[in-house]
Amino acid sequence: MAFPFILLALLVFSHCCYSQRSPSPGYYPSSRIPTSPFDRNFRTQWGFQHQRREHDIITLWLDKSSGSGYKSIRPYTSGYFGASIKLQSGYTAGVDTSFFLSNHQEHPGDHDEVDIEFLGTTPGKPYSLQTNVFVRGSGDRNVIGREMKFNMWFDPTQDFHHYAILWNPNQIVFYVDDVPIRTYDRKNEAIFPARAMWVYGSIWDASDWATENGRIKADYRYQPFVAQYRNFKLAGCTADGSTSCRPPSAAPRGNRGLSQQQTGAMAWAQRNFLVYNYCHDPKRDHTQTPEC
């Protein structure tokens, strides 16, 4: 009689964790940027046989033979980069579904990276959305992560939701449905990414660390693991573009940082859904993360 108990647990989880509505941030950057056709802006990078395009939806999947990923045609020095993503329900432990900026191919071992990653889970437990920033291996070729993890106020497997990164010379902002959930400010040039980066998306096996620090692995009895992307938004300054290009703003005109209403929405998200902050981890060596 385990099934009714599991069903009840799922219903209780859904009721307790997906019943909140986000406050209005007052500013919706995704609505100000037109959708970018996938074929005009991206190329499949790997796992060609594990990628399908149907109308405006790009489907990637992972099975025991391979995952899949794509990369933007152009590198950027700043911009707004977003995609609407729908995740797979059920057993997805060990699976990493990502949308991120990086120059790891051009600077191996010493790269910059700004990540949105969905860390797979087991039935009845929520996905974690991990945000992360790598900067030049912090100058010593050792990659130091700056992870902050969130649960969501909705079920990301039931519909598409929009996830985005805004990167300009002053700050990085991570958005979920236009609600800012995290900022990473330029407090020190040595720990803020400044080199050109490309936009990537991928699904891959991250069993070594993705779910409960690697305790629960990908189980290929549940393959394929599927992620769907659509509504791509790319707007910014390309590395080979005009030097007069103006980086995008994170907030309404006149605000250097977030507006008061955006800051309030971010405080709500962090108060209710932040589950890990690298700055508050007692196991970390915070001499390597001076921004904390």
Automatic annotation (TrEMBL):
What EC number(s) is this enzyme filed under? 2.4.1.207
What species was this sequence derived from? Answer: Brassica carinata (Ethiopian mustard)
Q: Which PANTHER family match?
A: XYLOGLUCAN ENDOTRANSGLUCOSYLASE/HYDROLASE PROTEIN 8-RELATED (PTHR31062)
| Function per UniProt | Catalyzes xyloglucan endohydrolysis (XEH) and/or endotransglycosylation (XET). Cleaves and religates xyloglucan polymers, an essential constituent of the primary cell wall, and thereby participates in cell wall construction of growing tissues.
Q: Which GO terms describe its molecular function?
A: hydrolase activity, hydrolyzing O-glycosyl compounds; xyloglucan:xyloglucosyl transferase activity
Catalytic positions?
Answer: 113 (nucleophile), 117 (proton donor)
Q: What are the GO BP annotations of this UniProt entry?
A: cell wall biogenesis; cell wall organization; xyloglucan metabolic process
**Residues covered by the GH16 domain:** 28-229
* Signal peptide, first to last residue: 1-19
Q: What is this protein called?
A: Xyloglucan endotransglucosylase/hydrolase
Q: What class of enzyme is it?
A: transferase
